[in-house]
Description:
Number of helices: 7
Bound molecules: 1,4-dihydronicotinamide adenine dinucleotide, the ligand O=C(O)C1=N[C@H](C(=O)O)C[C@H](O)C1
Helix content: 25-40%
Amino acid sequence: MRIALFGYGKMGQMIEQIARNRGHEIVAKIDENTQDIDFNSMDVAIDFSMPEAAFGNITKCFNNNVPVISGTTGWLDKYEDAITLCNDKKGAFIYASNFSLGVNIFFELNNYLAKMMQNLPEYKVSLEEIHHTQKLDAPSGTAITLAEGVIANSNYSEWKLDNSSDTILPITSKRIGKVPGTHTVDYESVVDRISIKHTAHNREGFALGAVTAAEWIIGKSGVFTMRDVLNLG
Ligand SMILES: NC(=O)C1=CN([C@@H]2O[C@H](COP(=O)(O)OP(=O)(O)OC[C@H]3O[C@@H](n4cnc5c(N)ncnc54)[C@H](O)[C@@H]3O)[C@@H](O)[C@H]2O)C=CC1
Ligand SMILES: O=C(O)C1=N[C@H](C(=O)O)C[C@H](O)C1
């Protein structure tokens, strides 16, 4: 498979390593200075760039009939526009706030736990995410997906950073050293606490998930998620 990397930072470099080990070819490494892009040279694009760059990169790929795997976070105000364009162009698209197998299982667990806790108002929910100090967006995309999972299965109506009430689900973001990504969901009552936590030890899981998604999307058209790729039901 001929892969073009949109963004060749920490994640782009990790994806290159995993993709080569799986027998794929990296045909382009695109960054903010790239002038000419040969879209005919690629079978699939993987975008791990920056919040302000992601939508433009995705748009160019759809306009050139290239399937897109999108891992960049912090651009979701334009997500619906990306879906519309993908459908108009009969393209293929997967966005995931987190491509790792472990986090996608964690998402399922989070939804299940939220359903079980739905009618137990004595438990207050809160989310915490910890990442490295170079991270540009807060809260993390993963924390937003977790919050959306809780909200869909509870009486909370919205999430906010560092702000809570009976209807506002609080998210706390911490930036510490080189932490690859740690997410915790807490249910706290006066008598006890239930916590679920995912800790990434490195970036390999994110990169492997993105390459697996790229392998999976070849030959398909439509908008998909990691639930489809991982067959999580
Ligand atoms: N969905 C997931 O599983 C994961 C998502 N991420 C997200 O991926 C993104 C990238 O993360 P890192 O690699 O750690 O960041 P990074 O800062 O190390 O790399 C970003 C790269 O994007 C490049 N870039 C800037 N403008 C560009 C443009 N117009 N086109 C192409 N490239 C451009 C920069 O030159 C830089 O090298 C972030 O949004 C992060 O939150 C990170 C890890 C996992
Ligand atoms: O920027 C990162 O590093 C990460 N970003 C993603 C996010 O915002 O959730 C995924 C992962 O936690 C690492």
